Amino acid sequence: MTDNSATLPPFEFPKIYSFPPLYTEQPNTTIQSQQLDSWTSIILQFCQYYKITTLTLDLTPKHSQYEQITISELPNLFNNKSINRSVSPEFQKKIINHLIHLKKAIFINPKKPQFGIFILWKSLVEWGNELYNYIDESGQKGTVMTIYELTKNDEGVTSIPDGLINLDEAFLIRIVKDYLIKQGKAQLLLDENNEIGGVKIV
């Protein structure tokens, strides 16, 4: 697999991202609904472009599948320095809740929301089916595999689909727990320390 992130040009934000009123919560419910939809679209497009699945609550990227990207150099979406505008913490929370309501995001840890969110530019069902189909088509059903083996190719081996390469390991576990296990298609195996030691797709 070729990692095209090395030549990936900066994300081209839509024009509305430079529209100052976007950053201030509007009192009119109709306009605010449009605002929330605009933010949802921007966030999903940005994260899909950079293959980001994990964000802090202030939308600072935490993980990209592109290894060559310096994650700390990516912009914080709620703070547009080019027009000197930022979203208030209260409005940030409303945008995050809107994403979750639309099933476009889930908390990394529902009991500790401060840990951030997984952003779903693909649904858990789509992610789960992609993982299941890869294991099925490669003849590895019933084989215990480590999280590493499910997200990394050994040198010279390119069997894992592009969509799964370098996937956030915590996100992969969430896909398995919240979709594949519930569908009866996977099992998580614990090691002697009661930590996840492997995954079996069945």
From TrEMBL:
One of its GO terms (biological process) is protein transport to vacuole involved in ubiquitin-dependent protein catabolic process via the multivesicular body sorting pathway. One of its GO terms (molecular function) is structural molecule activity. One of its GO terms (cellular component) is ESCRT II complex. SUPFAM superfamilies: Winged helix' DNA-binding domain. InterPro entries: ESCRT-II_cplx_Vps25-sub, ESCRT-II_cplx_Vps25-sub_N, WH-like_DNA-bd_sf, WH_DNA-bd_sf. Keywords: Protein transport, Transport. Belongs to the VPS25 family. This is Vacuolar protein-sorting-associated protein 25. It comes from Candida tropicalis (strain ATCC MYA-3404 / T1).
